[in-house]
Amino acid sequence: MAKIGIVGGTGYTGVELLRLLANHPKAEVAVITSRAEAGRPVSDIYPNLRGHIDLAFTEPDAQQLKACDLVFFATPNGTAMKMVPELLASGTRVIDLAADFRIKDIAVWEQWYGMAHACPDLVAEAIYGMPELNREVIQAAQLVANPGCYPTAVTLGFLPLIEAGLASLDNLVADCKSGVSGAGRGASVGMLMGETGESFKAYGVPGHRHLPEISQNLSVIKREPVDLTFVPHLLPMIRGIHATLYANVDGDVDLQSLYEARFENERFVDVLPAGSHPETRSVRGVNTCRIAIHRPQNKNIVVVLSVIDNLVKGAAGQAVQNMNLMLGFDEADGLREVALLP
Amino acid sequence: MAKIGIVGGTGYTGVELLRLLANHPKAEVAVITSRAEAGRPVSDIYPNLRGHIDLAFTEPDAQQLKACDLVFFATPNGTAMKMVPELLASGTRVIDLAADFRIKDIAVWEQWYGMAHACPDLVAEAIYGMPELNREVIQAAQLVANPGCYPTAVTLGFLPLIEAGLASLDNLVADCKSGVSGAGRGASVGMLMGETGESFKAYGVPGHRHLPEISQNLSVIKREPVDLTFVPHLLPMIRGIHATLYANVDGDVDLQSLYEARFENERFVDVLPAGSHPETRSVRGVNTCRIAIHRPQNKNIVVVLSVIDNLVKGAAGQAVQNMNLMLGFDEADGLREVALLP
Amino acid sequence: MAKIGIVGGTGYTGVELLRLLANHPKAEVAVITSRAEAGRPVSDIYPNLRGHIDLAFTEPDAQQLKACDLVFFATPNGTAMKMVPELLASGTRVIDLAADFRIKDIAVWEQWYGMAHACPDLVAEAIYGMPELNREVIQAAQLVANPGCYPTAVTLGFLPLIEAGLASLDNLVADCKSGVSGAGRGASVGMLMGETGESFKAYGVPGHRHLPEISQNLSVIKREPVDLTFVPHLLPMIRGIHATLYANVDGDVDLQSLYEARFENERFVDVLPAGSHPETRSVRGVNTCRIAIHRPQNKNIVVVLSVIDNLVKGAAGQAVQNMNLMLGFDEADGLREVALLP
Amino acid sequence: MAKIGIVGGTGYTGVELLRLLANHPKAEVAVITSRAEAGRPVSDIYPNLRGHIDLAFTEPDAQQLKACDLVFFATPNGTAMKMVPELLASGTRVIDLAADFRIKDIAVWEQWYGMAHACPDLVAEAIYGMPELNREVIQAAQLVANPGCYPTAVTLGFLPLIEAGLASLDNLVADCKSGVSGAGRGASVGMLMGETGESFKAYGVPGHRHLPEISQNLSVIKREPVDLTFVPHLLPMIRGIHATLYANVDGDVDLQSLYEARFENERFVDVLPAGSHPETRSVRGVNTCRIAIHRPQNKNIVVVLSVIDNLVKGAAGQAVQNMNLMLGFDEADGLREVALLP
Fold this sequence. Notes:
Four copies of one chain form a homotetramer. In chain A, β3, α4 (80-89) and β4 (93-96) form a beta-alpha-beta unit. Chain A has two domains: 2-125, NAD(P)-binding Rossmann-like Domain (Rossmann fold, 3-Layer(aba) Sandwich); 150-310, 2-Layer Sandwich (Dihydrodipicolinate Reductase, domain 2), CATH 3.30.360. The first copy, chain A, is 32% helix and 21% strand. Chain A has helices at residues 12-22, 42-45, 62-66, 80-89, 106-113, 120-125, 131-139, 149-163, 193-196, 210-222, 255-262, 312-326, and strands at 2-7, 27-33, 70-73, 93-96, 127-128, 143-145, 167-178, 201-202, 229-234, 241-249, 269-271, 289-294, 301-308. By secondary structure, the first copy, chain A, is an alpha/beta fold. Chain A has twelve helices and 13 strands. In chain A, α7 (131-139) runs parallel beside α12. Chains in contact: A-B, A-C, A-D, B-C, B-D, C-D.
């Protein structure tokens, strides 16, 4: 069994990593750290783990983490970059679920995240952990930047269109909706049930940190700068992202076949039959992205619908998928559950 | 007190009319019909009306309805058109909350609604009941077609942009999200809480009946044909519509001032301060449309956020506003409540 | 118009007071205080009040408050008791929506609320503001302790049974369920939507502060000590309390008539027809308590179902009802809205 | 691999069986029937099963079902009893998830279920499938009556108290709350999200079909007639049952130890540490029942809190547990997932 460490395990991505790893056939969580909860059993905070994970949180300890084959960082932005260099130096592989290593342009990163980067050179080395784009280099990576939730849903949804050069890049729109778990487990008035229940709103319209990440992804795919309009919204529910994507496409192309061909060998991207409307609940708890493509009234605007569970394919699940690739396991190990519906 | 009739009062728009009219200073519900529930007290089905409305449902009766000053139809599509001619002939004014008189092009209506129209000549006479567009003609109208919920949110949101000739009409997108009450109170598997709770999806992407209504509205404003891409989605909540609107706008225009000026004298349209993100709960139970305008990163795509309560400004509230205009009351009579938040 | 002050207006009971007072025919909010938000327009935090309340929060100022006819305290427990003596001395009447003046036994209060009481003598003078128990003395009161939310639902539900001496007092059980707004608007992990959505739990089973308040109420009614088992639960919704009450009743009594007779002249208590099951939504946003009485299988256990909106009859609405009594207005002024359903 | 049949697979218990069996190491669904959906792929109705179950619904066919090792009936009450005799005669084992074989007293069953029983003799033979009560006889059973959801939560919660003879049987109260999925997937107005969302109510207080089942269970445990008061409520959420149980217990007993000892070897009953309040989400999607015991203020009323997922331990999960026992598999096969939290 591979020995796994998790730094910062008290948030929603932390508990989700534990849920997925609890039944993983080849990996075992050896250490999970939390300064605030050190000494407390994990199952005390997360009773769903009773009987599955018999660990207590510990203070972060470099020696313990170095003894792991791979360490996940489920920490706030800016934490991993301070600890990762030492771990990599000792040969431990790292997957960061925060944003520290996602943006290649350091100046852009520092602008959006409001701090100086502690190890810019490692940013250059880090592999962006989206297997559908980067499978081979992930397999050999020492450091993987796990993608953001919105960027995962949007990038997979636009990928075949952009790759095939079909979309006009002038008017890409990503109208995205997320459940509240995307905001994490920190205490805040804005995320109280009294504030978010039975209501819906957009947020961050002037600018959201996932915008530069999405732009970077599309630019890498297109091999030229790609910009888009990205509007996130907050759903009165817990899990799930729905990206509704708009692009101008000229001419008479069989988009259904294009998408099916592109994702034919991807085990975690499911192109639905023509005419479908994916529901977020169809991926609740699982690592799948389900996609449908529409061309309403046969006009030039193509509408792509892309759903993921923000905590799984948008965070912990994709991280386990990356771990499987990095450690040479079957890519689906620990990720074979069926979505919980209803 | 004006005598009011309601035909088909068992659905959500029916109960909402009763809620608003219960405290109206100048109008009184004299008759409310329902074939299925004839004889049953209204408050038996809707206990919130206990102590407020002391009426029982009755079989529809032409004489009783003709004795009313004004009759609301809160019936399924295709019902009002069969009864309205007789009522109008007797001098009773009519507001239809369904779609029978909304679309001027009869062929278009028949295509989208799947039936032959029973009185095409009255469609020509009917006034589209959006006071922000048609206040003066509504005041004199005998027959008002009350707007659909999505068309209300979208039309008010685009109105100043289109009117001012600022938006390029090539790429208008209306990405809309509605609570489940928009689907009415009919039994259906798809609207069960077990099917709609904790999930989100688009629906009707290939085509939705509100598309021709929105296009007609924008074309009337622009005085030339306007098309758009309209994608409705279903929210896991009961009340509220959020329209996220995208348009290409060239040049450096002060959109905030444009919107504030356009709606300055409108009591039911509230333009929020620059930078705002309206929440649907801020209009829960009230007749207000709240709007915010954004131009992310100062690029060409303008984003308008428009929220209404689909049962109030999107249905019964706008109908009462129209009634107030038609009967010479203060436009806000019966519509002065504060939204229920939280 | 009576001049009204509100101390601590940023919480849910504060905004609810503003909502109800905005349309009150005889009272007007003159000052609303908040140290944290001083200077900020009320409608900035609560956009539902835009166009209805044109006030900004101010620092608490004794002179301004003394100039009011009546002041509501919508503050955390322990705040009102420090400011009330000065206000009363100047002739301003006070309604405290917190718990400072609810419990007559100071030792009991200090034990459950964990602090020393600042003005025990005023506790003796204060009137417990439940009009169905204390209408006449409320009319003459200078200081009213507004009841807690659970105590309101439970006391009204048990009232006729206890008053008539029908219930055995050995086994009273109050199994209560509340929406999350009862916990207020403070930031806390436990009340995040991610923590409370789609889940249900009991809390405070070993002891909850509303237990001594309910016991005191029942003891006052019975004129001897009454104890009960009280178990509160948290509902995954925003507004509403449902109390399910169990009592042993011997003999063949017509409980339906008993309840109807007891509340016949109460405008805010509605006894439903035999066989009913009240829904919390039937009182959403309104000051009504709806009650149904059952005796399953004609056995000795009577089941009373009692629902209120915790923010209205359980807080701000009952406070306005008390204000109406204290200032000689019609008891229902400002409280005539119809519940928002659906 | 054992060959498994499912009769009536389109409801929520049907899809839940498919979800759990999809990853079962020793059982495989060979046939799934539905008259209404015959010919349609299962994953067409339940997209969460895409990639996991490659079956289509078929017309019920006796030969195909007889070829199975075990057949689950996930049908409405009254269906299984017509088909089971033939299957048993051919040696196929049967688990009925409906109520046809749960009540031993045929007259009682016929009264509550409103129909004549088609095979009363089989009722006598059938084993009530609660492994914590009947493990050994289930292992040898040909026909298992899978327990109802409420009866599972209530029976497990009361079990140690009744078994130990500690509870006074005069005043047992089970105040139960269930998510909407307990009502199944049939179209009905009452279960629309517009009717059940953001609201809470009791239902069936005069009498609910699970009352005789619970009474029978407690009577079997006690070996004498046991009656109780059972009040079910409907929660505005999808999955989960919370039973709050009240019993009179005299004397000074260590209830915590009693419960821990009773369930020490039960893999699907988890007694929480003293002072806990189990949340329904802690068992979402899994076969565990979590229980906490309280004795508020050390008085005579004991409060037991018992939570299950109504579709898993309350239906399909317990059915798979029974199947594992009947076919000689490990009792936890297919039931090792971690609850989905948040």
